[in-house]
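Field notebook, page 151. I keep forgetting to write these up properly, so this time I am using the form the group agreed on. The chain and the ligand, protoporphyrin IX containing FE, are recorded exactly as supplied. Prediction of the bound pose follows.
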Amino acid sequence: MRFHHLALFLHLTGVVLWVGGMVFIRVCLVSPTLTAAQWAEALAHFFSLSWVAIALIVITGGFMLIAVGYARAPLGWLLMTFLGTIMIVVFASLWFGPWMALREALAKGGLAQAQAQAQARAAIQRINKHLDIVLVLAILTAVAATLGLAL
Ligand code: HEM
């Protein structure tokens, strides 16, 4: 077994964890009875897992790409790197934007409670919209990584 095989295994493990987590949030976590606080708790676990997965994807993907060299890398790999980078940028904007807004809204208490709940709900909707964009990009990235090899 070459180091490349191990890197590919870890790369795909990262992809499975990150993309699988997003699918779980968007497709399985659909109960209308979930409170904003319960949503935030699930998302907090999801984000911790996602950052580890993203680090795995970038480190192992970067290693495999550099080992082969940009000039010799297939077009599909370069497309994957480009789309994967956009995925990470959109994901980071979700974390710094609506996720921070959700945490801020939930930290508010007292008289502002009803308003804070409305803010929290709006933030959750924005988080879900961002996740949908990242998921569409994930499909395109996987297409580039696989079918793109035929280019
Ligand atoms: C952002 C930085 C990324 C870099 C630098 C990168 C780089 C690479 C490289 C060099 C390989 C080829 C390994 C080989 O064929 O032996 C690979 C494989 C793969 N990557 Fe990525 N990748 C990135 C992100 C992603 C993302 C976000 C996804 C999925 C959403 C993804 C999905 C895949 C898949 C499915 C393979 C296996 C298919 C193949 O070997 O061509 N990658 N990646």
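OBSERVATIONS:
- The chain is about 85% helix and 0% strand.
- The mean pLDDT is 94.
FOLLOW-UP: compare against the apo run.
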